[in-house]
Amino acid sequence: MLRAGRACTGGAPQRIFAGAAIWFLATLAFPAAAQFTDWSTPQNLGPSVNTAYADSCVAISKNKLTLFFSSNRQTGNAASMNRDLYVSKRDSTDADWGPPVPLDAINTGDWESCPALSVDEHQLYFTSNRPGGCGAEDIWVAYRQDIHNDVDWEPPVHLGCAADGYLNTPGRDLMPTLFETETGGIVMYFSTIRPGTSYWDIYQSEMRDDGTFGPPSPVTELNSATYNSSPTVRRDGLEIIFSSDRPGGSGNSSSLDFWSATRATTSDPWSMPVFVPSLGNPALMQGRIALSWDGLELYFTSTRPGGLGGAATPL
Questions:
Q1: Do residues 125 and 178 touch, judged by C-beta distance below 8 A?
Q2: Cβ–Cβ < 8 Å for 126, 109
Q3: Per CATH, is 2-300 categorized as 2.120.10?
Q4: What dihedral do alpha carbons 240, 245, 249, 253 form, nearest 10°?
């Protein structure tokens, strides 16, 4: 896994708090004139997190001190498709990451991947092919009472099947990411291979008042007849970054590139996606990518030179 940074030149974000009896939600609003510089050269997170196995599909906490990701290190086989979820912590943003710990309350020993924290950080959404789903891989969620306890999760709950009015399909549903709209609604973006198709598309689903997610719909302005996956949405919902092998990128047909799109409000359609050349060629980058809460850092998976190894398909 790697990290790239950028600067915001539009002034410091303003903090807006919204709370209710049990829940405490914090959102940050960017100034209207905020502009971001190009991304810096990606940096490997180092051997405290990365191994010769497939370490991928990362999520970062709001304070940047907790890192959730998937790995097949527990199998002893770098080519294994089995994944478990892990968490690593650090004392400050300048400190090294600590030894990763498996999320035993969630892992089944089969395939768990692509974690994503909810806006309030009480829920961890992830993908699994465990029994009880409606497709090859489905999106599940686990709840914790204490957001400072990264290993004490309640038993995961399936998000339900689209045929019954919920989110998951008979296809492959992976790589969730969530953000909060201006009106307080929660929207999930994720990647999916729909039944009868052979390529990935990006879909979205809105959380209902009862906390469930409704049937998903395609984000047509982002999709193409190619691979479109790994979406990550800035916390204000006005920028999305994803991976794609569509024409117009680096020109390397054997790898994926980063693309981005923006919009004026969360009710507007996305702009035409543009290639992000400052990140260079991700070289077979796969797995869910993650923006930090302040929008200034991007965490992602890559098999580019200079890493410690890992499989070429680290979903």
A1: yes
A2: no
A3: yes
A4: 160
Cα–Cα distance measured from residue 169 to residue 194, given in angstroms and rounded to the nearest whole number: 7
Residue 95 DSSP symbol: S
Please list the residues that pair with 290 across neighbouring strands.
Answer: 299
pLDDT in tens, 230-255: 999 999 899 999 999 899 988 776 67
Tell which phi-psi region holds residue 79, choosing left (phi > 0), alpha (psi between -120 and 50) or beta: alpha
In whole angstroms, give the CA distance from residue 1 to residue 314: 10
Polymer length of the chain? 315
* Distance from C-alpha of 260 to C-alpha of 209, rounded to nearest angstrom: 30
Helices (H) and strands (E) in the chain, counts: 0, 22
Instruction: Please give the model's pTM, rounded to 2 decimal places.
Output: 0.88
State the amino acid at position 9 in one-letter form: T
pLDDT in tens, 142-182: 999 999 999 999 999 999 999 999 999 998 999 999 999 98
- Bridge partners of 260, per DSSP, are 241, 274
Residue at token pair 């092919």: 129
Phi then psi dihedrals of residue 190, to 5 deg: -155, 170
Copy the structure tokens of residue 79: 């080519």
Break the chain into its structural domains and give their ranges: 2-300
CB 226 within 8 A of CB 200: no
Q: Which of 61, 81, 85, 106 is nearest to 315 (CA)?
A: 81
